[in-house]
Amino acid sequence: MTLPDGRGAAVGASAHHRALEALYAAAPINRLFDSTLEISGPGEARIRFTVDERYFHAAGAAHGTAYFKMLDDAAFYAANTLVSDRFLLTTQFNLLFTRPLARGPAVAEGRWISGQRRMLIADARLLDESGEEVARGTGTFMRSRMSLASLPGYRV
């Protein structure tokens, strides 16, 4: 849809971003995590979440599953902002753990790096409550055969 003032692409992108946020909220896995996806623009995604004892390993800090989930999701959604017709799939994701993640608010910030056709590359960083980076990840994502419009939760 193109508006008379030429804002059609921006309106379409914004609708796609809001639909991706709704898709994230509707995913059954996200019932296990107190988290919210925010997309501020193309190639950018932020997940705010709260770490509590449910995610701790025996030594009292967040288990790697919480790191992976939030970093993968932030990078994934940053990449999927650039693909409006297909759901992406993670084909590879590498993590670098730098500090323990304790109880409290945290943020995973994802950004698209390159690629738009078959393969996309995005990275993410995980910040604790004080803004210190506790982990970083980079992933590759490819288009699936699944149409975004066919997925429950994706509402434009």
Please describe what this structure looks like.
It is a single chain. The protein is α+β, with helices and mostly antiparallel strands and 156 residues long. The chain contains two helices and six strands. The chain has helices spanning 8-26, 64-80; strands spanning 35-41, 44-51, 86-97, 104-114, 119-127, 133-147. The protein has a six-stranded antiparallel β-sheet. A hairpin with a 4-residue loop joins β4 (104-114) and β5 (119-127). The longest helix is centred in the first third of the chain and has 19 residues, at 8-26. It is globular. The protein starts with 7 loop residues before the first helix and ends in a 9-residue tail after the last strand. The model is unreliable at 1-8 (pLDDT under 50).
